[in-house]
Every structure is written in structure tokens, then in C-alpha cells.
Specification:
Keywords: Disulfide bond, Lectin, Membrane, Transmembrane, Transmembrane helix
Protein name: C-type lectin domain-containing protein
CATH class of one domain: Alpha Beta
CATH architecture of one domain: Roll
CATH topology of one domain: Mannose-Binding Protein A, Chain A
CATH superfamily of one domain: Mannose-Binding Protein A, subunit A
Radius of gyration: 49 Å
Number of helices: 3
Pfam family, one: Lectin_C
Distance between the termini: 126 Å
Organism: Perca fluviatilis
Helix content: 40-55%
GO molecular function: carbohydrate binding
């Protein structure tokens, strides 16, 4: 009986030890599995985080480029707005001073008479100069005022070489037939618009004579 019990106890003990070994092995495997699982999760988390950082960096780069372009457009629009305001101010200023606009310039027609040199000095003081006629349209425009008016043409520097006040030589002229002629031997070195009913309305007279005058101020649009 004792041997039976001993044998039974031995079997129980053996079974217990085997169970402990199995349990220990199982626990060790579980620990390894448990230890491995967080490692893989951490790796995935790092990979996902890195991917998100790349996406955020790309989005930031795009945003900066768009902002830069928007800023440039804003500056451009601001400059254009300022320029437009400046030109509108100029228009209002010249209109109030009695100037007349004919593209691309403003024109001031005097209400009193002066010599050619004095007339030019007045134009310069106004930020302009005596009118330079560059086209048939401008020639027709200047004839409409029906005044004897100085224009910015002279041969004071070199007799017979007509130049505009900006130094450019005369290319297209609108002399009345027979002009210029230094009438009666006078030094007629300056030019007026005299014959308003004719397209060719220019006449040379002495620069010291008294005339109305036309100032011209170009406005860039």
C-alpha cells in the first residue's frame, strides 16, 4: 500500500514537475512574444510618423511657394493700385489747373502773351515744355484753339536747322507755303501757329514777339 502511494505520489510529482516545465516554457515563449509585439508596433509607429512628417514637409513647401507667389501678386497689385491712384491724382490736378487732355498728353493754353523764351520758362515751371507736334492728329488738335500760339520749335542754335525743345530734329513740318522766310530780313527763329484754317499753319517770327503759347505735359498710362 505504501509503495502504491509512493508510486502514486511519484507520478503526481512527475506530472507536477512536467506541468511546471511546460508552464515555464510557455511563460518564456509568452514573454518573448510579448516582448516582440511592442517592438514591431514601435517600428510601425516610427515608420508611420516618418511618413506623416514627409507629407507635412511637402505640404509646407507647397504652402510656402503659394504664399510667395501670392505675396508677389499682392505687391504687384499694390504697385498697380498706387500707380493708378497717382495717375488719377495727376489727371484731377491738371484738369483743375485748366489743362486739356489729348492722348497721350495734357496741354495748357495760356491766357496772356509772352516772348518765346518767357513762354517756355512758364511751361518749364509747370513741369512741362512748349508743345512738340509729332503727328497730323496733334497738329489738327493745336489748330482748334484759334490763337496765335508759340510751339516748341526753333533754329536759334543753328540758322536753318530747326529743332524741337527736346533736341530732336524736325522731321515732319506744317509750314504755310512760303515759310519759313525771315520776312523783311528779320531773325525769325521761333515758330507760331498762325493760319488756323489751314493744316499747314506754321509761321516763323522773331522770338521776342508777344504770343500766347501751348505747354505740353506727357502722362504715361
Amino acid at each position: 500500500m505504501a509503495r502504491f502511494v509512493h508510486g502514486e505520489q511519484s507520478e503526481i510529482t512527475t506530472d507536477y514537475i512536467n506541468q511546471r516545465d511546460a508552464s515555464a516554457r510557455s511563460s518564456g515563449q509568452d514573454r518573448r512574444v510579448t516582448a516582440a509585439v511592442p517592438g514591431r508596433k514601435l517600428y510601425r509607429l516610427v515608420a508611420v510618423s516618418f511618413g506623416l512628417l514627409c507629407v507635412l514637409q511637402a505640404a509646407l513647401n507647397i504652402s510656402l511657394r503659394l504664399y510667395s507667389k501670392t505675396a508677389d501678386i499682392g505687391v504687384c497689385c499694390t504697385n498697380l493700385t498706387c500707380e493708378l491712384k497717382r495717375e488719377l491724382f495727376n489727371f484731377d490736378h491738371y484738369f483743375q489747373q485748366g489743362w486739356v487732355y489729348f492722348h497721350p498728353s495734357f496741354y495748357y493754353i495760356s491766357s496772356n502773351k509772352k516772348s518765346w523764351q518767357e513762354s517756355r520758362a512758364d511751361c518749364l515751371q509747370r513741369g512741362a515744355d512748349l508743345v512738340i507736334i509729332n503727328s497730323k492728329e496733334e497738329q489738327d488738335f493745336t489748330r482748334k484753339f484759334h490763337k496765335l500760339t508759340w510751339i516748341g520749335l526753333t533754329d536759334r542754335e543753328t540758322k536753318g536747322t530747326w529743332k524741337w525743345v527736346d533736341g530732336t530734329p524736325l522731321n515732319k513740318s506744317y509750314w504755310k507755303p512760303g515759310e519759313p522766310n525771315d520776312f523783311e530780313g528779320k531773325n525769325e527763329d521761333c515758330v507760331e501757329i498762325r493760319f488756323h484754317d489751314l493744316e499747314n499753319s506754321w509761321n516763323d517770327i522773331p522770338c521776342g514777339d508777344q504770343n500766347f503759347w501751348i505747354c505740353e505735359k506727357r502722362i504715361a498710362l
